[in-house]
């Protein structure tokens, strides 16, 4: 499979601030890649670097095999869809969509043909003469996408395009964007701080923190095999629970602040300190396969209707349990918490790496 984008040892400095640190990402033609991470981690900077809106400090970016370093945005064959949509308020939908083609003085027939096709693809056919102020948020978002589509680019770049929409529309537009990506056989790079969005839309997720790529892989790969504590805590909702523990002489783990021992089927060196990682959905108030039980106190219950999140105190630490349905338990109850041993994660407390 051909590589559409290669980001090769890329660094970006803003004065003395190192915003992107030796970033390496290979993106196949036709794939949908999400850049995800907390605010300030550098995901927008990376996207803007691909678009040609930021200069790089060192390293290379290749699109369809050619280095684009030093090339202006219009020579890169990429189209960017912004969070703010960046629509021209005085232009109707049609003119917003075909602005770039008019700027390039493309033939009239080509302009109207491409605009019509894009409008049909996006279900905007009957809104072409509306001004942006007379559109809903979702419709504006579609116009912004239409503007990218008419340019027929090699690569689509999305900078948090759904963050101004309400929750229901956001979920709907996620699948619309994904379908569009497939229909156009496009290559897409999508920035979001929302790990659920990244997990549900992308084939390949890149998790960033403080300018560094912490891990990249398929969504389920990151979920099942997080490389370090940061990725483990960032991917998954509600977040993974972490309990501090220390390895004993006989190869078990004993929880700090508690005498509970957890026997593991693997060798660990005595005295090593770990975080035990437990996903909320791998905890239960009832016995399960290959589990161990531990005393806990219920300190809170939150229900979404279909799911219930039970907040517990275990060895003086808060732990969240996810239960599909409605468990018969109340705040203040003393319970036995069952932990599925097959699904535990271990992280070295010094390096934070998966052990
Ligand atoms: P957010 O989700 O909040 O948009 P982000 O991950 O997209 O965050 P960036 O916008 O890429 O983060 O910013 C990365 C870091 O670089 C931040 O610490 C930011 O303050 C810094 N930065 C961004 N642009 C500049 C600039 N023009 N000059 C100096 N520092 C900058």
From TrEMBL:
Superkingdom of this protein's organism: Bacteria
Family matches, as CDD domains: ABC_MalK_N
Main location: membrane
UniProt subcellular location: Cell inner membrane
Membrane topology: Peripheral membrane protein
Residue ranges annotated for the ABC transporter domain, each copy included: 5-235
One record GO biological process: carbohydrate transport
GO molecular function ontology, one term from the record: ATP hydrolysis activity
CC terms in the record's Gene Ontology section: ATP-binding cassette (ABC) transporter complex, substrate-binding subunit-containing
Gene3D superfamilies in the record: 2.40.50.100, Nucleic acid-binding proteins, P-loop containing nucleotide triphosphate hydrolases
Keywords: ATP-binding, Nucleotide-binding, Sugar transport, Transport
Family: Belongs to the ABC transporter superfamily.
Name used for this protein in its record: Multiple sugar transport system ATP-binding protein
Annotated source species: Phyllobacterium trifolii
Organism lineage: Bacteria, Pseudomonadati, Pseudomonadota, Alphaproteobacteria, Hyphomicrobiales
